[in-house]
Every structure is written in C-alpha cells, then in structure tokens.
C-alpha cells in the first residue's frame, strides 16, 4: 500500500475465523520486525482509531487493525465475554499465518490482550496495554454509570461524548479531545457503521464481567513477555490505579503515565506515545 495515503484510505481486507468473516486493515511494512496487531476499545469500529496515531505507528512497522466480531464490517455476533473475544483474536492471528506478533490492546482490548497472553503465549512477542486493567480491577464494573454520566456531561459541555469520557475537563483536555474527534471516523473507503445496540450490550457485558470476576494476578505473573503499560493521570473508564496494579503483577513491565489526561492519553499525546512504542518494541527487552 502507498504509505503516503495514510490510514484513512486503507481498504478493508477479510479473513474467516471459525466461520465468521472478520474485517481488518493493514498499513505499513517492515519485514525486519514483527507486525503490530491492534485490539480496540469498547464498541469501537476500525474507523474509530486515531488516524494520526496509526500513521505514526506504521512508519516503522506493519500495523494490523482487527475489526472485532459483530462490529463494523466484521460479521457474526459480538462475543459477550473477554475469553471469547480473545479466542477470536488469537484465531485471527492464526488465520493470517503470523507466527509471532506484537499486540496493543486499548481499553477492553487490553483485557483481550491479557487473555491472549494467557491462552496463547506463543503468539506474542511484546505487549502494550493502554487504558487497561486486570480482571476484577477497581471501578471497571461501573462502566454503565460512567458512560451515562459522560454522555450527560458531554451534552452540557456541547462536545462529542468521547471528549468527556476520554479526556479531562481542563482546557488542555477539551482542546485535545476536540482535535482527536477530528482524526477519527474520517475513512474515505469502506466506511463502517457504528456498533449496534446488540453489539454494545454484548461488549458491555464482557467488560463488566471482567471487572466483577476474580483477579487474574496469578495469570499475570506467568506472562513473561515484555509489557508496556500506558494511561493518563485520570482515567474515568478504567481508573488509572489499575495500570499500576498491572505493573505490580507483571514480571517484565514498564509503566508510562501522561499528565492532565485520561482514557485517551495515547491520542492526546500520540506523538510521544508513538515514540515510546517504538523504543519499547525495538529495544532488546
């Protein structure tokens, strides 16, 4: 693909996993390093990725964007458990015949990445967890209240709901949020429809159940791959303390927290985040 065109023109491609046709997009190329596979946030389509972030990541490696089952251009029904989402994600890597990949899981995608690392550790070389938390993590089960509050606040502020949910209410946060909104959902080919109510309900059940279930600290301790954990100072959706808990329980992890930011810190500071990712993925450990 012509790199100069960027993510917004990356067409959909398709692969079948367990009879379900999954959509994905691929941008960038570098045969000298493993591809980076992205697992997205709650109810997100591939169009919801920040194009500037994707373009930045793709300058040094192939980036593969997975469309979750039952969301956007992907077929099937949205799974209502992280375990099932992880099974499809691992099957996706298998279907592309990728022997070793790096993965970045954002939000519920971070839970999926943890589960893939537990179930299929041989697939993963390095792991990035952004805006994520362990199973049973503090505040994760409060998803519905947080989202309803965020939507109400967004209406009062006259901003996109993601501005209120992913960013702080400071001037810098609101400015960053408004800029982020301009960089999503601007695909020029293969535009996707937003998640259905059914898919939203299934993924909400998956994330809330993850938050209400017993901890996965024992499984985390057995993850030996290097892990980069990233979050903002004040994450409303998966409280920032969960990033520190992940850091405590993973054997080989580093933790990066960005100032005056929330769940969308990786978008607010996308240039710094890309540099951090490149240093982590290209480093020796």
Estimate nothing, just give the exact number of structural domains.
1
Strands, count: 8
How many helices does DSSP assign? Answer: 11
Shape: globular
Q: From the 3D structure, determine the CATH topology.
A: Rossmann fold
Structural class: alpha/beta
At CATH's second level, what is the architecture?
Answer: 3-Layer(aba) Sandwich
The separation of the N and C termini measures 30 Å
- Average pLDDT reading: 96
CATH class: Alpha Beta
Order of helices and strands: EEEHEHEHEHHHHHEHEHH
Give the fraction of residues assigned to helices.
25-40%
Query: CATH superfamily name?
Result: Alpha/Beta hydrolase fold, catalytic domain
What strand line-up does the widest sheet have? Answer: 1-2-4-3-5-6-7-8
Characterize the largest beta sheet: strand count, sense, and whether it forms a barrel.
Answer: 8 strands, mixed
Domain AB hydrolase-1: 34-267
Protein name: Pimeloyl-ACP methyl ester carboxylesterase
InterPro entries: AB_hydrolase, AB_hydrolase_1, AB_hydrolase_fold
Please provide a written account of the structure.
The protein is α/β, with parallel strands linked by helices. It has a single domain (3-282), classed as 3-Layer(aba) Sandwich (Rossmann fold), CATH 3.40.50. The chain is 40% helix and 16% strand. The protein is built from 11 helices and 8 strands. It has helices at residues 51-57, 82-95, 108-119, 143-157, 161-166, 171-182, 197-212, 217-221, 241-249, 265-268, 270-282, and strands at 13-17, 20-27, 36-39, 63-66, 101-106, 124-130, 227-232, 253-258. An 8-stranded mixed beta sheet has the order 1-2-4-3-5-6-7-8, sandwiched between helices. Helix 3 (108-119) links the parallel strand 5 and strand 6 (124-130). Helix 1 (51-57) packs parallel to helix 11 (270-282) and helix 2 (82-95) packs across helix 3 (108-119). The protein is globular, with a radius of gyration of 17 Å. The protein starts with 12 loop residues before the first strand and ends with a helix. 49% of the residues are buried. The model has no long low-confidence stretch (mean pLDDT 96).
